[in-house]
């Protein structure tokens, strides 16, 4: 994807060329491979369904099968860090290999770790996933803003420098999320709308840095559940953050690609539907995994037109 333009600042004499921004790389991947993110969620029941042991060997076999089947054809792969961490250091080593092999095959890797903290701790989390020198270096990271959006600044800054992206929890589909995300602030806006507003500001700043060059999509996205039929209302009527919208909930959680226009409105073209079990249940047969992913991606293309 070397033909993707980079910010004007990258071309100043004497400075190294900055990496292509995540939003530009994501837009190109979605346009060429289809708008789909497939989760790599090796939980115990799925390992059993595949005939694998609930151990490091089963974890490795599962993850490698998904990468070999899908990394050269889907836009985004999203490993869920917790399912690797539960095996300790050997599980994290499998995660490192999974990330590296998926990126080498051409997929963008979104690390689903939902990190959120303050100060130097947030900076350390950011370095773990967004520093190119890290063995867990990924194209993007999920983060939680519920210690205050400003607490994410170390991740925002490192993502900008490294050409990575962030997906910030905004309107999640779990029932417990509403008590925080739908709470109304003194200014009359919901917490979710406030988070979306901050993302719009970060993407506007990124766009300004491109100084008139073509820049198709911002690098700072939101997580908005595809099962939320009232997502537009909960967001204060707008999901227009000039960035991607990661939409879990397609398949096992009950949403379908046909639901996306009603949930996301005018922002539907920036939606990245995220599917895990809906694809993974077809394993361990690689051809069946590919067919399932291709079918969902095609259904999304039809729906978002």
From TrEMBL:
Pathway given in the UniProt record: Pyrimidine metabolism; UMP biosynthesis via de novo pathway; UMP from orotate: step 2/2
Keywords (A to Z) from UniProt: Decarboxylase, Lyase, Pyrimidine biosynthesis
Orotidine 5'-phosphate decarboxylase domain segment(s): 35-292
InterPro entries named among the record's database cross-references: Aldolase_TIM, OMPdecase_AS, OMPdecase_type-2, OMPdeCOase_dom, RibuloseP-bd_barrel
Reactions the enzyme catalyzes: orotidine 5'-phosphate + H(+) = UMP + CO2
A biological process from GO: 'de novo' UMP biosynthetic process
Annotated SUPFAM superfamilies: Ribulose-phoshate binding barrel
EC assignment: 4.1.1.23
Molecular functions (GO terms): orotidine-5'-phosphate decarboxylase activity
The organism's taxonomic lineage, starting at the top: Bacteria, Bacillati, Actinomycetota, Actinomycetes, Kitasatosporales
UniProt KW Lyase keyword: yes
Annotated source species: Streptomyces buecherae
Protein name listed in UniProt: Orotidine 5'-phosphate decarboxylase
Presence of keyword Lyase: yes
NCBIfam families reported for this sequence: pyrF_sub2 (TIGR02127)
Pfam families: OMPdecase
Active site: 114
Record-stated family: Belongs to the OMP decarboxylase family. Type 2 subfamily.
HAMAP family referenced in this protein's UniProt entry, alphabetically: OMPdecase_type2 (MF_01215)
């Amino acid at each position: 994807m070397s033909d993707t333009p980079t910010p004007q600042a990258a071309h100043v004499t004497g400075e190294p060329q900055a990496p292509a921004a995540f939003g530009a790389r994501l837009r190109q991947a979605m346009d060429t491979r289809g708008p789909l993110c497939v989760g790599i969620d090796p939980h115990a029941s799925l390992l059993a369904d595949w005939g694998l042991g609930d151990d490091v060997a089963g974890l490795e076999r599962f993850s490698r099968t998904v990468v070999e089947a899908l990394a050269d054809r889907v836009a985004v792969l999203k490993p869920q860090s917790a399912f690797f961490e539960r095996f300790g250091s050997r599980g994290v080593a499998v995660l490192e290999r999974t990330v590296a092999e998926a990126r080498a095959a051409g997929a963008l890797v979104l690390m689903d770790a939902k990190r959120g903290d303050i100060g130097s701790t947030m900076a350390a989390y950011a370095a773990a996933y967004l520093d190119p020198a890290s063995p867990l270096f990924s194209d993007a990271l999920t983060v939680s803003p519920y210690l205050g959006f400003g607490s994410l600044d170390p991740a925002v800054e490192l993502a900008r420098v490294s050409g990575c992206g962030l997906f910030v929890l905004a309107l999640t589909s779990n029932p417990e999320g509403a008590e925080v995300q739908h709470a109304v602030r003194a200014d009359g806006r919901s917490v979710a709308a406030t988070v979306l507003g901050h993302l719009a500001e970060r993407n506007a700043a990124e766009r300004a840095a491109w100084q008139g060059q073509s820049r198709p999509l911002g690098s700072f996205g939101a997580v908005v559940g595809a099962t939320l039929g009232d997502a537009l209302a909960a967001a204060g009527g707008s999901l227009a953050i000039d960035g991607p919208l990661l939409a879990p909930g397609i398949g096992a959680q009950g949403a379908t690609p046909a639901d996306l226009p009603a949930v996301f409105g005018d922002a539907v073209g920036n939606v990245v539907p995220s599917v895990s079990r809906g694809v993974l249940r077809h394993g361990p047969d690689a051809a069946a995994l590919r067919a399932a992913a291709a079918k969902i991606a095609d259904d999304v293309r039809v729906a978002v037109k």
